[in-house]
Amino acid sequence: MIAEILFVFLGVVALATGVLAVASRHLMHAALWLVVTLGAVAGTFLLLGAELLAWVQVLVYVGAVVVLIVFALMLTRRPTAVASAEVTKNSRPAAVVSVLATLGLTAVFAVTFGGSRFEVRRLGTAENIGSAIFTEWVLAFEVLSVVLLVALIAAIVIARGTEAGEH
Amino acid sequence: MPLLFPLLLSAALFGVGLYGVLARRNAVLALIGVELMLNAVNLQLVTYDAWYGDTTHTGQVLTLYVIALAAAEIGLGLAIILALFRARGTVDVDDVERVS
Question: Cβ of B83 and A159 within 8 Å?
Answer without folding.
Answer: yes
